[in-house]
Write a structure and sequence with these properties.
By secondary structure, this protein is an all-alpha fold. The chain is built from 9 helices and 2 strands; from the N terminus they run αααααβααβαα. α2 (about 35-55) runs parallel beside α4 (about 90-115).
Length: about 280
């Protein structure tokens, strides 16, 4: 009568690996684990987006916006932490995309809908959906084109910047004492325009600078540190207005680059046409 397997050997019954039949000295295959630190940061970013949704449902829009901006900071950290600690994984990449969809896709759409678009009827929720769908399409395109896009540029407005445009506008208005735009027609339509602009810009092919190549330099001029200090001081003067203004400038910078390169007769796409040329420069 065969003796049933128990213990560790039973775990390998379905994998085709038999420890008893393996030659001596052959290590047992290791189970794939999950790195804690980078995924913990990603979960914190996901919590920021979920917190923003809950706050928007309760009419606390300033807290909702702060939750989205905190998720932006954490989203910028998890990938860098993974690279610094050599803990990159396919699981982490998928987790990051799902967290981005919640924090920078669903959360801003729901926040702006509750704040302004609800009073516009069908047009309001349709625009909110367009933004949410654009965020999903942009993230899917980013994941599939990551190997063929020049890493110095984003193809379309990145979803965190789009979320900053939408929620930053709400933050500025809320800081000015306007707690809801549903009763103010011109403000509701302005919020709709900002949401539509941010959503559609995410799915364009317009190049936006990624700032990823700045971290590759071992040293920077002293004036860069001075500019960083001035930027921090400016943000502390009035965070809502300064941050929203900065993202507004970034939100139109891609179109400025596109127009400039068009007038100069230079290629504007961030996707490489051929991978055979050794002197590939990225924009084509």
């Amino acid at each position: 009568m065969p003796v049933p397997r128990i213990g560790p050997a039973a775990d390998d019954a379905g994998s085709g690996f038999d420890p008893a039949a393996a030659p001596l000295g052959v290590p047992r295959p290791r189970r794939r684990g999950i790195y804690v630190l980078p995924n913990l940061v990603t979960l914190a970013a996901l919590f920021g987006g979920f917190y923003a949704i809950v706050m928007a449902m309760n009419g606390r829009f300033e807290n909702a916006v702060i939750g989205v901006f905190c998720a932006m900071v954490l989203d910028g950290l998890d990938g860098r932490i993974a690279r610094m600690t050599h803990t990159q994984s396919a699981f982490g990449e998928q987790m990051d995309s799902l967290a981005d969809m919640v924090s920078f896709g669903a959360a801003p759409a729901l926040i702006v809908y509750e704040w302004a678009l609800k009073g516009l009827g069908k047009a309001g929720w349709v625009v909110a959906f367009v933004y949410c769908a654009s965020a999903a399409l942009r993230l899917a395109r980013f994941n599939t084109n990551v190997g063929v896009v020049d890493r110095r540029w984003f193809q379309g407005l990145p979803s965190p910047a789009a979320a900053a445009l939408v929620t930053g506008f709400i933050w500025v208005m809320d800081d000015a004492g306007i707690k809801g735009a549903g009763r103010i027609d011109w403000l509701a339509w302005t919020a709709m325009a900002v949401t539509l602009y941010a959503g559609l810009t995410m799915v364009t092919n317009v190049p936006f600078y990624s700032f990823k190549d700045l971290g590759q330099r071992r040293s920077v001029p002293f004036v860069v540190l001075v500019l960083i200090a001035l930027g921090i001081a400016a943000v502390n003067l009035h965070p809502p207005l300064v941050l929203f203004g900065a993202f507004c400038v970034y939100g139109v910078s891609g179109y400025a680059v596109y127009a400039w390169r068009k007038t100069k007769g230079k290629p504007v796409s961030v996707i490489a046409i051929s991978k055979d040329e050794p002197d590939e420069r990225g924009l084509h």
